[in-house]
Every structure is written in C-alpha cells, then in structure tokens.
C-alpha cells in the first residue's frame, strides 16, 4: 500500500487502499439490515452509515429454514435507488458467482456471509479478484487473518445473527482482542510459531503484532438489539456495529434505529445511552444461544 | 507559545487517521463530539464518513449551530470528502432535510465520481502544497460543481474541481489522511497557526 503515483498514470480502481479506505469511512457508524426500499429509507433517516440489502433478515432465515441465497437483483437495485448511503449485500461463502453478480449490480460492499448457506465447505471466494470490497466474519484472530489474506477489506464478528443475543459477538471480539494483545508481547522468533498456530500468513501476523490492531476495520455483527448492546461492542473495541434483525423485528424500528446510532457514537457516555434507551417499545424477542443446536450455529460456518 | 490544538469532529468517520495526520503535522489533535469541546480548538477537521449521518448527529447533539458560529468568525476548518460536503454553502442533490455547516461558497455534488466500484487513486497537484503531486484517494467522492467569487480552486482532477480554499476554510474531495503523506494537513496546520497568531495580536 505504499506505492506512489506518477502524474501521468491512469487512475487506479479496486486498490487495497480504496477498498480498506471505504471501510474507514464507516467507522463509528451503524450498518442496518433492510429488506425493502422503505426500510432502507427509515435506516438512512435514522443515521445509518450503510444498509445491508437482503431478502429476509436472519431471524426469518432461522425460522424459515431451507437454503438461504443471494437476494433478488431487482430487490437490491430497488434499495440502491432508494438511498444515497452505501449499500452492501450478501453472497454465500465460496459462491464467487453470486459475488460477481453483486459486483455487476454496483453494490458498495459484499458480505461473504455465514448467514447464508455456504456454497463451498473448503474455500472462500478469492476476494482480491474483485473491484468491490468484501467484509467477512471471524470468530478469532486466525480466521480474521485468513479472510484478510484472501482479500477481505473489513472484518466483523460472527455473533449469532437473528438471535438478539449479543453473547457470541462479545466472545469473538474479546477473543480477537486478547489474541492481538498476546502477539504484542512476542519477539520475532515467536511470531513464526504464532503464525503456524493461527494458520495465518506470517507477514500479516507480524503486521498485527506491530500495529496492535487488525490492518483493516473491525466491526461487531450478530445479536445487537439495544443501544446498550451497541455501546458494549464499541467499548470492547469494535469500530462500528452491524445491526440485523434487531431493528426491523422490534416494536418501533425508526426510533430504535436512531437510538442505536446515538449510542454507537456516544458509546462511552452512559447518560446518553440511558436517554437513547428510553421508551423504545418492544425489543426483538431473542433466542438463548446455549439452546441452539450446533447445526443451527452460523458461526461454525466458514473455515 | 502554547500548543496548537486542532480538533477532529468525531461523530462518525475516519477520525483516527486525521488525528494521526495532525499529530504528524505538529498539532495536538483531539476528538470533538460536544459543543464544549469545540471551544478550546484553534482549528477543526471535518473527517470523511457519511455526510448524512454526521450532519444528523451534529443537529441532534447541538453542535450544528456552534459549528456554524465558529466557522463564521473565522475558525480554520478542513473537510475531506464528507467534510467537503459539510463545508459547502449549497448541495446540488441534498437528501431531504440534509443540513450543512457551510463556510465555502461552492456547490457540491455528492458521490459525483460514482459508487465504490468507481473509487480510485490518482496523483493530484494541489495549489499551496509543494513537493510534487499529492496521492489522491477518492472514495465515493464528491466534486465541486462551481465556486463563487470568494473561493479559490486549488486542485482539479479530470476537469472537475476537487479542492477549494476560501479564507480559513479548506476542502478536498480526496483523503490525504489515508496515505501517510501529511503535506495537506501541514498546510492546514499552518492556516491554524496563522489564525491563532492573528488572534493573539
């Protein structure tokens, strides 16, 4: 990323810098799942920095069962038309043709997502071969670095989407944070063994040890249902928050969306979080993650 | 003389990168989220981010009016991308109800260079910044449709205006904070130093 440009050189698109830089612009913000143009407008009016266009929110994907796939292009285009903020959309893990389709539709970010049914149980998509940047989920540092090695320009936790339960996202962020802190104390000899243990490229491991953070933006995703949930994730080190079912499965989506935006910006100010939490109506019901059978845990998808 | 203090509006966006760039340019950089935090700064950066989100939060948390008041009385301000949009006196295509801080007599078109797939890097010559072209990182970037008599165009790309200065206000459609080249932040720090010196005379 240290290349210099000469004046006569043609402008370059799809570089690592513009892909990662795009995510930098989303920091401190909330990205909301929406299934219709109307919901997308509600999200934008509430102060969302981006929307994730999908056919069903994760809570409904859980309920309906079956194979979950990329959304209908018409539906995605309808949402792109409706708002001026960036629009993201999900492809199945390893389904690089869905990703090609999403790129051709002009989405601003592709989420190679465990919420959809994986198309490949060994390989993720080669994300370097796309102009559109990718965000990928990770439960730990090794997984995050493998995704970055494949070209992911942004990482998010893999909290159990559609449960309204933040416990798994907390686990992932703490895990990533602790593993980075551990690397900080390693000398050069130890970093080689750490790379082997993390099953990640040595260069990336060394970079993280030097930076004390991932080389790309880290967001929280999965299970955020309240303003306090969002602020918790930020205090644990997430640079922003994805909210899926938590908004449009609640009693008053517009109000809850605006409240989560406020709490994400003022995540360290309990008074503002308290004010944002008042009279929001019903939160989504939620599922206890320890009663979820292993086969229904999305975090196990991805390798 | 005491330290030069430059704030970064920290409601949303690439705040950390600006804090790093300002520190490299010799300023004490601090985030600004509340009206009272605005009082102690000699200059303010409006970072990249989502302009609709930042403007909404600024109104909601009582920052918009104090911001306008300080910019009106000459506080040096520098906006990148979304920050450029916020410094525009007029937007060509505002979202309904989208407010700006204003300060530069220009009309800005949001996302003018296109969506993320069209985001690009290119070398840009910037007036007032010596040492060769700046590495311009344009992300869903705006451009300036036109400027009024008081505003000076200091950079263009592909026939479009991408950097403007008017008095103590500076705006670029691109993101020097993402490059590690801190010359534009250096120019802004000089503007803030000049303002502080003039104020103390």
TrEMBL record, chain A:
GO terms for molecular function: pyridoxal 5'-phosphate synthase (glutamine hydrolysing) activity. It catalyses: aldehydo-D-ribose 5-phosphate + D-glyceraldehyde 3-phosphate + L-glutamine = pyridoxal 5'-phosphate + L-glutamate + phosphate + 3 H2O + H(+). Gene3D superfamilies: Aldolase class I. It comes from the Bacteria. Pathway: Cofactor biosynthesis; pyridoxal 5'-phosphate biosynthesis. Residues 16-221 form the PdxS/SNZ N-terminal domain. CDD domains: pdxS. Its EC number is 4.3.3.6. GO terms for biological process: amino acid metabolic process; pyridoxal phosphate biosynthetic process; pyridoxine biosynthetic process. D-glyceraldehyde 3-phosphate binds at residue 174. Transmembrane segments: none annotated. InterPro entries: Aldolase_TIM, PdxS/SNZ, PdxS/SNZ_N, RibuloseP-bd_barrel. D-ribose 5-phosphate binds at residues 33, 162, 223, 244-245. Keywords: Lyase, Pyridoxal phosphate, Schiff base. Pfam families: SOR_SNZ. The active site is at residue 90. Belongs to the PdxS/SNZ family. Homohexamer and homododecamer. In the presence of PdxT, forms a dodecamer of heterodimers. Catalyzes the formation of pyridoxal 5'-phosphate from ribose 5-phosphate (RBP), glyceraldehyde 3-phosphate (G3P) and ammonia. The ammonia is provided by the PdxT subunit. Can also use ribulose 5-phosphate and dihydroxyacetone phosphate as substrates, resulting from enzyme-catalyzed isomerization of RBP and G3P, respectively. This is Pyridoxal 5'-phosphate synthase subunit PdxS. It comes from Streptomyces prasinopilosus. The gene is pdxS.
């Amino acid at each position: 990323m240290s290349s210099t440009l000469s004046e006569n050189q043609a402008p370059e698109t799809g570089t690592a810098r513009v892909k990662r830089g795009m995510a930098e612009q989303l920091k401190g913000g909330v990205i909301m799942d929406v299934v219709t143009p109307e919901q997308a407008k509600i999200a934008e009016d509430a102060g969302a920095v981006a929307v994730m266009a999908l056919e069903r929110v994760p809570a409904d994907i859980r309920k309906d069962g079956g194979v979950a796939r990329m959304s209908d292009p018409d539906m995605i285009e309808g949402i792109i038309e409706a708002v001026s903020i960036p629009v993201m959309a999900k492809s199945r893990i390893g389904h690089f043709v869905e990703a090609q389709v999403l790129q051709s539709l002009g989405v601003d970010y592709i989420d190679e997502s465990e919420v959809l049914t994986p198309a490949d149980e060994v390989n993720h998509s080669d994300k370097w071969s796309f102009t559109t940047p990718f965000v990928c989920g990770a439960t730990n540092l090794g997984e995050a670095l493998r995704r970055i090695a494949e070209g992911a320009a942004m990482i998010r936790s893999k909290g159990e989407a559609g449960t309204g339960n933040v416990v798994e996202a907390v686990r992932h962020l703490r895990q990533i944070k602790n593993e980075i802190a551990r690397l900080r104390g390693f000398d050069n000899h130890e970093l080689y063994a750490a790379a082997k243990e993390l099953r990640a490229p040595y260069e990336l491991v060394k970079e993280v040890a030097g930076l004390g953070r991932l080389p790309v933006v880290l967001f929280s995703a999965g299970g955020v249902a309240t303003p306090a949930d969002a602020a918790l994730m930020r205090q644990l080190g997430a640079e922003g928050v994805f909210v899926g079912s938590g908004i449009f499965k609640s009693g008053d989506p517009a109000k809850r969306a605006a409240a989560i935006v406020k709490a994400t910006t003022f995540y360290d100010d309990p008074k503002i979080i308290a004010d944002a939490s008042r009279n929001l109506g019903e939160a989504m019901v939620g599922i206890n993650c320890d009663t979820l059978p292993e086969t229904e845990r999305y975090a196990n998808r991805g390798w | 003389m005491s330290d030069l203090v430059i704030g970064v509006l920290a409601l949303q966006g690439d705040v950390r990168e600006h804090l790093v760039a300002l520190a490299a340019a010799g300023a004490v950089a601090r985030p600004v989220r509340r009206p009272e935090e605005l009082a102690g700064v000699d200059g303010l950066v409006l970072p990249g981010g989502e302009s609709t989100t930042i403007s909404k939060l600024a109104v909601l948390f009582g920052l918009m009016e104090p911001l306008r008041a300080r910019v009106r009385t000459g506080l040096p301000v520098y906006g990148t991308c979304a920050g450029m949009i916020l410094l525009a006196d007029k937007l060509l295509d505002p979202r309904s109800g989208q407010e700006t801080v204003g300060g530069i007599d220009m009309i800005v078109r949001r996302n003018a260079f296109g969506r993320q797939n069209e985001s690009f890097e290119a070398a840009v010559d910037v007036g007032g910044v010596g040492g060769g072209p700046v590495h311009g990182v344009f992300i869903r970037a705006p451009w300036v449709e036109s400027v009024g008599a008081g505003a000076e165009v200091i950079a263009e790309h592909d026939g479009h205006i991408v950097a403007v200065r008017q008095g103590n206000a500076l705006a670029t459609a691109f993101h020097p904070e993402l490059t590690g080249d801190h010359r534009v932040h250096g120019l802004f720090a000089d503007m803030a130093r000049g303002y502080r010196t003039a104020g103390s005379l």
